[in-house]
């Protein structure tokens, strides 16, 4: 059965968003999740992925000139491995018209970004974990 995923801008106070975005926050606590969501009220955008009316994923980002910085990318556990994350990235790349995307991520997500043709370089981390800066440059015609 083919299921259509709809992408649309959402508010940081959207129901179910706390549960979805928590998976992309290191050591998530209620205060930390609230702080992250409040930061989107000041700077950044959130795009939700919906199947029917259910929020199943989100991407949070900021745009500086033609550089899009991915801050959070999350999909509900029951909906993972359905290309929702990659489709969210393709959506914002087309929607925002940026030439460069970047994301700071951990070892668990590095392969995901590399499969989407991001170049990932190991960076210093204050968390005693391997961190990677992953960059995608959109080809221009």
From TrEMBL:
N-acetyltransferase domain span: 5-141
InterPro entries according to UniProt: Acyl_CoA_acyltransferase (IPR016181), GNAT_dom (IPR000182)
GO-annotated molecular function: acyltransferase activity, transferring groups other than amino-acyl groups
Signal peptide positions on this chain: none
PROSITE patterns in alphabetical order: GNAT (PS51186)
Gene3D superfamilies named among the record's database cross-references: 3.40.630.30
One of the Pfam families matching this protein, by short name: Acetyltransf_10
Protein name (Swiss-Prot/TrEMBL): N-acetyltransferase domain-containing protein
Record organism: Paraphotobacterium marinum
